[in-house]
Amino acid sequence: MELYNKGYDKNGEPVYAEEYTTEELAAQLYASQEWADFTAKFAWPNDYNKDLFDLVIDEKLGPNPELADYQRLFKNVIAAAGVVTVKGKRYEFEIAPEPEVIVEPEVPTDRNGRPLTPAQIAWSEYRIFSESNSVEVCRQRAKTDAGYGSFFRKQYERQTGEVGDAVNNLNQRQQVSAPPAEELVTWAAEYHRTPTEKLRQLKRFDTNPYGAADWNRKFEACVSAGLI
Fold first, then answer.
1. How many CB atoms are closer than 10 A to CB 37?
2. DSSP states of 112-169
3. Cβ(166)–Cβ(157) below 8 Å
């Protein structure tokens, strides 16, 4: 670093300033807050912005600019939202792209806020599926999905007290124990008189643990008979 005469004051006395090498000035510039603000707002490094940057520096600062000149220029460019005029033409620095926000998948929790285990999550999905689909649909899934098949058998055993292959047993029960036509008509009439919310409760295993299997069997029979 050396001193150089940058001019004279009002009394005619010479005014000296520190003269930095290009490397020293660049190091100070890159460490400044103004440079951090500039590169945070505008895309950098960016070929278009680099070329525009050089044009702006040449026209606005001229030869031998000082650090304060750069800092003042950066503040003005930021305040103008990147819009500059060079040789009578309007240009605009390209804005830095917004960083991509990665949203972590939400982990289900129990009522106490503890994360559910994979087994608990699967069990919850099985329960919702069973409540939202007919017995026949559930039975078909149980044939091909081992995890759901285990759930389905356990629910069957809880509902009926029978131990065995729930997939086959339910099919046999539907064939052997299908209610007579007159009983179906009566059951269907009662179905149409029952409020929707009550129907949901009768269908679900958690709200009707001892009757849901029979209720769903009769429902499927009425659907097949065209009564519902």
1. 15
2. TSPBPPHHHHHHHHHHHHHHHS-HHHHHHHHHH-HHHHHHHHHHHHHHH---S-HHHH
3. yes
- Looking up tokens 């356990």 gives 154
Distance CA 192, CA 14 (A): 104
Model confidence pLDDT, tens digit, residues 85-132: 999 999 999 998 887 888 777 878 878 888 888 888 888 888 888 888
Q: Provide the angle, in degrees to the nearest 10, between the axes of the packed helices 166-176 and 212-224.
A: 60
Distance CA 25, CA 66 (A): 8
Chain centroid to CA 110: 21
The CA angle 67-56-7, to the nearest 5 degrees, is: 45
Q: Is the pTM of this model over 0.85?
A: no
**pLDDT value of position 176:** 44
